[in-house]
Write a structure and sequence with these properties.
The chain has 227 residues and is an all-beta fold. The chain has one helix and 15 strands. It has a seven-stranded antiparallel β-sheet, with no helix packed on it. A hairpin with a 2-residue loop joins strand 9 and strand 10 (126-129). The model has no long low-confidence stretch (mean pLDDT 90).
């Protein structure tokens, strides 16, 4: 759904919301962030059906352009414009796999057998809380030579919420020349956006995100001469 409106002569708003759901049994022939390219069991392809790696269920993007009112024939107060973009979207799915070959097929693609003791949480870099001991984590897996029953891409990474803002001032010289001063701020509120957490069972940082997906607040200045 998309909405465009001009509330007043100088203010223009645009908003677009997208709901999507992508289902597949493999998202790429190569390993991607969040999932392996190989199945858990090559003879059970139906068990691979689940959310695609790039399944972003909800996305909202809104923007505005505001020509600020200013006194005419005044080079300091006229010609100012502000613009901004707000982006909100849910995170991508990922699969928790074992670091040992449980079903003995030669591939490290084995999934969990149960979610008992696994808790969804969002505190700092911690996204999912897993049992801490080796024995408790081993209990999440299937018996030897068996496949895990927890589906592919059943976990979700954190979403994204960014605000970008820009302000520019135009100074005209005659009819054909102008200088534009522009300031842009990306990730205005300097929000930390954590990436897919470590999702390999028995790894030291299991459940914790060790990277970010959006850069910290960035300020950019520019001058443009038009003729």
């Amino acid at each position: 759904a998309e909405l465009t409106a001009s509330l007043v002569q100088r203010l223009h708003l645009t908003a677009a919301y997208t709901w999507s759901h992508v289902i597949d049994d493999v998202s790429d022939m190569f390993d991607l962030a969040g999932a392996r390219g190989l199945p858990q069991n090559s003879f059970d392809q139906k068990a691979e059906r689940g959310d695609a790696n790039f399944d972003l269920r909800h996305r909202l993007a809104a923007s505005f352009v505001w020509d600020l009112p200013g006194r005419e024939r005044n080079g300091l107060f006229e010609g100012w414009q502000m613009a901004g973009i707000i982006t909100l979207q849910t995170g991508q799915p990922f699969t928790v796999i074992s670091s040992v070959d449980v079903n003995l097929d030669g591939n490290l693609t084995d999934r969990l057998q149960t979610m008992t003791g696994v808790r969804a949480i969002n505190e700092g870099s911690l996204r999912y809380e897993f049992p801490s001991s080796f024995a408790a984590q081993r209990a999440l897996l299937a018996a030897d030579r068996s496949d895990g029953s927890v589906g592919r891409n059943t976990f979700r990474a954190p979403g994204t919420a960014t605000v970008d803002l820009a302000a520019n001032k135009s100074l005209r010289f005659g009819k054909a020349q102008a200088i534009e001063f522009r300031a842009e701020v990306f990730n205005l509120f300097n929000r930390t956006h954590f990436g897919i957490p470590v999702h390999t069972l028995f790894a030291p940082a299991l459940g914790h995100s060790v990277n970010t997906t959006v850069a910290a607040r960035t300020v950019q200045l520019a001058i443009k001469y038009k003729f």
